[in-house]
Amino acid sequence: MTRYLKFLLPALVVIAAIAFFALAPKSRDNLVVIITPSLDNPFFGWEARAAEARAKELGYKTLTFSHGDDAYKQNELIDTAIARNAAAIILDNAGADASVAAVQKARNAGIAVFLIDREINVRGAAHAQIVSNNYQGATLGAESFITAMGGKGAYVELVGKESDTNALIRSKGYHEVLDQYPDMKMVARQSANWSQSEGFTVMQSLLQAHPDIRGVIAGNDTMALGALAALEAAGRTDVVVVGFDGSNDARDAILRGRMTATVLQPAFRQAQYAVELADKHIKSGQTSQVEKLLMDCVLVDGNNARQLDNFGLKKG
């Protein structure tokens, strides 16, 4: 019996070691996956660049994708991140409700998920949700709009995707201010789905239906710039236009005197900060921050437009 134990015990040790390593959690690859709605849109493109650059500075490999606001494609990209054994995902998501399952799936797979720009409608799935203070920013834009309109006149509102919480929050912030002025008359409110081309076509239709409009307030700069192009094509250089995002194109339109203002949301810094929190979580297992983090917005008009560059304000 002793002779058999002599051979059996080493074998049991080997089997136990194999079982331990098979069941132990796999170490994460040194990879950060960055997923945004688009890489062509200036806003989403710059947040992707910011996240990628910061991740590389911190020593990570990166993969960058776009989901095109398609929740099904986003789900496939999350599966790719899981298959590649990513350490973290930086995500500007494809819908407040439609993205919940995908985010939870990544977390269940042991991947830290950090949302930027757009939040989801649950808490506890993402490790952090870093978003602009859209309500605060919208009130700044509305106040500038009212001043430029002289507190009266017919106007239209262009809103973003109804599935995007940001669209609803910005609209609510606008109306918190605008609705206090009885001589400000909203004659139409229509979605242009964050799109410049849709902003153009929607504005063409609205101009025909409401030729007396004196102002356009839009939920983002791309819609505002589409509306501006339609106004210019119709020879309407008398209409006040206010956007939201802080793009270079909006800056240039302000400097030309064709847009009144935009609201800068700090996309570049949000993306950097998301990577920094991801790095902290990867190294220590926690971020020491609450899940939802708000960054205040800044009004950009003729006074500071020259400082605006790629969704950030330069000093001086």
Automatic annotation (TrEMBL):
Keywords: Signal. It comes from the Bacteria. Pfam families: Peripla_BP_4. Belongs to the bacterial solute-binding protein 2 family. Signal peptide: none annotated. It comes from Asticcacaulis aquaticus. Residues 32-285 form the Periplasmic binding protein domain. This is D-ribose ABC transporter substrate-binding protein. It is found in: Cell envelope. Gene3D superfamilies: 3.40.50.2300. The keyword Signal applies. Its main location: other.
